[in-house]
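1st attempt posting a full record on here, be nice pls
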Amino acid sequence: MSEAFLETKSWFDGYVEKYLTEDPIDNQVIRLKQDHTHRVSHNAAVLGDALGLSTHDNAIARLTGLLHDVGRFKQFTLYRTFNDAVSENHARLGLREIGLHQVLGRWNKEDRRLICQAIAYHNVIKLPENADERSLLFMKVIRDADKLDVYRVLIQNYREQNQGTSRTVLHRLPDTPTCSPIILETLLKKKVAKFEDMKSLNDFKLLQIGWVYDLNFTPTFQTLHRLQYIQQISELLPRTEPVVTAVDQALEYVASRI
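the predicted structure (as tokens):
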């Protein structure tokens, strides 16, 4: 790792420490996001290696992973939620914090542009059509790296809903047996559903299955297949015909991209 990255990593961990409180549940939530951040940074570096990125570009990908969720810590402290729709866009909030603390001072103007653009677009439903190829590369790397770890985090929380972090991570959605028709219809069209259309925990699981249509790189699909994340989520869903059809279609899509 470069000296610049290690310096930024040290800043990040120090920044997170400032959000810890005397509340053990709050601290679990903060630590969960800190750990997620480090795994996404690692995922981005692994994906960068698989894609044959240069040492410099791999460092950009790794750093973007480290900084992509900086806004989550202030978001949780201010709003008690990770739901952007009822609080604030955490990507924009993070970019303000990065600018305020001059985190990217050791990186040149072009690198700063690439990192900030990738962070700005890591959580949108659709990438900008007018972005240049190099910008799109880093946007896609962080989105894939992020989703791979969010799959893991959410599956764990679906199964352990009694733990302190689950209410926040799962957006306090009711665990009812229903699935919203609009979510299922979107999946069957091979599109990514919208967060604002979620009404239940099952909707969140279906939305997450639909993320396969927003993944970008063969190594990502290979990892998704190897870890069987879609199969694990499907085991937690009702076995209705529309759900089974949507899951089977998603699995076929993953197989086709391997």
